Prior knowledge:
By secondary structure, the protein is mainly alpha-helical. The protein has one domain. Helices cover 62% and strands 0% of the residues.
Amino acid sequence: MTALQIVTFFVRRWQLETTFEEARRHLGLETQRQWSALAIARTTPILLGVFSSVTLLANTLVCNGTLPMRQAAWYTRTIPTFSDALAAVRAHWWRAIGLATSRRERDMIKVPRNVFRRLHEAACYAA
């Protein structure tokens, strides 16, 4: 094989490995706790389907060609991760279904909007 073919195959394989790593980290792939081999055989394809569904949903949610990404002060990313996609999908569905709130004034605790946004973001990124 030529050097270009080897690099091309490596790049393709790397994308696949990244998919499995993200599915392990965020969806629990390979850490199922079932007792039968059949249950495990059913769970893995479903988890990969969830991974694909989240990826496709996040792709449709992208506005202006970018997906909102969390940034650390010491590390700037340019490409969103599956964690970013999962958070965007969670945020979308939570907005769509509406967060249940109390209708009675005495049951409410008023939280500043910026605190609520931070809590909401933390919940979207929770594992």
